Amino acid sequence: MDVESAAVESQAPKFALPVDSEHKATEFRLFSVAAPHMRAFHLSWISFFCCFVSSFAAPPLLPIIRDNLNLTATDIGNAGIASVTGAVFARLAMGTACDLFGPRLASASLILLTAPAVYFTSIASSSISFLLVRFFTGFSLATFVSTQFWMSSMFSAPVVGTANGVSGGWGNLGGGATQLIMPLVFALIVNIGAVEFTAWRIAFFIPALFQMLSAFAVLTLGQDLPDGNFKKLQKSGDKEKDKFSKVFYHGITNYRGWILALTYGYCFGVELTIDNIIAEYFYDRFNLKLHTAGIIAASSGLANLFARPGGGIISDAVAKRFGMRGRLWALWLVQTLGGLFCILLGRVDSLSASIVVLIVFSVFVQTACGLTFGVVPFVSRRSLGVISGMTGGGGNVGAVLTQLIFFKGSKYSKETGITLMGIMIICCTLPIMLIYFPQWGGMFCGPSQNISSEEDYYLSEWNSQEREKGLHQGSLKFAENCRAERGKVKGFNSDEAQSTNIE
């Protein structure tokens, strides 16, 4: 036995980070670029960051663009809605593509397909053409799904929330960074000698170029899984090619995914809405200069530097003590507080108070985003991409509905719309209480009395014929590595109840 185990160990691939039985990293080392785990992390957030900059490059320049193209408030509202509408279905499709072809190819393909729309923004000449380029550019936001899928494929249960939170947060940072980048690029071009109505058009070449470069980096430097790329592993027989129908079915029939999609609609969806309206809101309401309004708007997005990562870290931290139930409680509490501060943001009427409340509100909302994707990786092993896509798409649906209801046209003032949006956040966060994992419990209930184990839950996605072929082995390893989700606090976990079943 010792000789055999030594032989197996000698044949096992060596990694710079400690790994579990699936070769997922059990540690997250932020400043490492070690392949494949940390390299995938840096490639994922940088490429997503570039897509975010491109998708929201227009809002900080809207006061100039609207004068050049004679845009009305309705035109601007429609374009803002269009920018997040395309990604609704793109995110669901991206999740399925990740399950079937791997995150590297799925991500790079979408980035390259949407880059031309960023270039074409420079030739927009009417409200319709402006809406169309924003619509097609917004498809690139679906790279968020590949980012979260990639991290969930590279990092083990104890640190997956952190990996998802930091990668998603630093990618979303592009929404704040573009509020600073685009006005500066615009000002530089004007200083060189271009007129304003030409300068804003030239400015769009910068985000388009960086978006394309990030795609080439993902393709050439990235790796789908710790052991290699999907195609190579499928050819060697180390990974079976799954069926689209099965992957899709087990994703859309898991009610937990739908609840998380709704929840995400009113944290990330709200963040997208703020990215679209906040610069113009401060510019018009407080009579600020364009650059000043951009800096204030950037403070909201730039909170992603620590807020969303903080959500992932909090999710992992509470899980160590309270298990999955701790993750759910933390998500509900933080997002509800975000809703309260959103209501307050719409009620305060001084510039200084508005800035402070905006920052606090943004921190809570973005932390809730990180907390959401601290739960997502555990909903389904077989349909991880579909669940990630559903949840991510829910964020875009929330943004579309919120902008349609509260910020399209002149039915509501922006301050009233922000207040009503806060009420929506609180209401749409309540269904988190309905999420229940039989092996771990929910917010108010412990694990099932029927002694359901992690193996029971994840192997239920495979039928007897598939198990006979050994297709369930990945789920079996994943179940074993998820036992930490029971937590350690007596009465708050299922450790004792499940031990007899596992033995």
What composes the largest sheet? 2 strands, antiparallel
Q: Provide the CATH architecture.
A: Up-down Bundle
Number of domains: 1
Shape: globular
Mean pLDDT: 89
Strand runs, count: 2
Portion of residues within helices = over 70%
Give the name of the CATH superfamily.
MFS general substrate transporter like domains
Q: Give Rg in angstroms.
A: 23 Å
Instruction: Find the structural class using helix and strand composition.
Output: mainly alpha
Give a structural overview:
The protein has 503 residues and is mainly alpha-helical. It has one domain: MFS general substrate transporter like domains (Growth Hormone, Chain: A, Up-down Bundle). The chain has helices spanning 2-11, 37-55, 62-69, 73-101, 103-120, 127-138, 143-154, 157-192, 196-203, 205-221, 230-236, 244-252, 255-265, 268-285, 290-302, 307-347, 351-375, 384-406, 414-429, 454-459, 464-468, 473-481, 495-502; strands at residues 436-437, 441-442. Strands 1-2 form a two-stranded antiparallel sheet. The protein is globular. The model is unreliable at 1-11 and 494-503 (pLDDT under 50).
